[in-house]
């Protein structure tokens, strides 16, 4: 609940009520179609005031109990005042009674002053409504920014987690490469040892062959050539 929002609605209601409370006196000087037009304008302003009061009630639902109780009492008084003004402007006595009518010149002066005051109140009410709308738009913009920030934070968290997983995969791959390198080194040592043994075997085989040829030559010489 925003107490600032309640205060703004309260100012709008005061502006509307200040305009409404002048209308019964204006109705005393109106007749016929002009009076009907004034009553229609009164009904429109009263409807707007009722909407403002309803908006205040909605804002007060989540307010602290002490503040809500005080404002609820005020809202009941405001509705009572609106009902009183409605009874006054629809009273059958409105528009009659010569003793209560001012002279023509004074009547026009009061009417002009009231028109100026009403115009000023309407201008203030429009500014308040515009300010309230701007505040609502700013609040929505802040909420959107917060949602975007939350989404960005979530994306960042996901990226960090994914990078952590990729780091673990790279470390496992590096460990496998290290193990593979060690295995290759052992394989090279084994191959070199096998190569040395093969060369040794070849040399031994060559020596044996040479010795066998020498023995065979000696036997042939002794048997066939020596007398």
From TrEMBL:
One of its GO terms (biological process) is macroautophagy. InterPro entries: SNARE (IPR010989), T_SNARE_dom (IPR000727), v-SNARE_N_sf (IPR038407), Vesicle_trsprt_v-SNARE_N (IPR007705). This is Vesicle transport through interaction with t-SNAREs 1B. It comes from Myripristis murdjan. Residues 127-194 form the T-SNARE coiled-coil homology domain. It holds the Pfam family V-SNARE_C. SUPFAM superfamilies: SNARE fusion complex, t-snare proteins. Gene3D superfamilies: 1.20.5.110, t-snare proteins. Keywords: Coiled coil, Membrane, Protein transport, Transmembrane, Transmembrane helix, Transport. One of its GO terms (molecular function) is SNAP receptor activity.
């Amino acid at each position: 609940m925003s107490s600032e929002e309640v205060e703004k609605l309260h100012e709008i209601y005061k502006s509307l009520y200040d305009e409404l409370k002048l209308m019964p006196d204006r109705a005393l000087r109106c007749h016929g179609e002009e009076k009907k037009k004034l009553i229609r304008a009164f009904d429109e302003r009263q409807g707007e005031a009722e909407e403002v009061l309803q908006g205040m009630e909605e804002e007060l639902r989540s307010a602290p109990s002490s503040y809500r109780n005080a404002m609820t009492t005020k809202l009941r008084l405001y509705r009572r005042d609106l009902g009183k003004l409605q009874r006054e402007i629809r009273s059958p006595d409105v528009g009659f009674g010569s003793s209560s009518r001012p002279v023509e010149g004074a009547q026009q002066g009061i009417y002009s002053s009231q028109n100026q005051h009403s115009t000023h109140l309407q201008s203030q009410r429009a500014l308040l409504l515009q300010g309230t709308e701007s505040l609502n738009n700013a609040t929505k913009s802040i909420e959107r920014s917060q949602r975007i920030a939350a989404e960005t934070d979530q994306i960042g968290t996901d990226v960090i987690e994914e990078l952590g997983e990729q780091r673990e995969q790279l470390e496992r791959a590096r460990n496998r490469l290290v193990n593979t390198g060690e295995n290759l080194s052992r394989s090279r040592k084994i191959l070199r040892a096998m190569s040395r043994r093969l060369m040794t075997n070849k040399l031994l085989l060559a020596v044996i062959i040479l010795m066998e040829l020498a023995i065979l030559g000696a036997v042939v010489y002794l048997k066939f050539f020596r007398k």
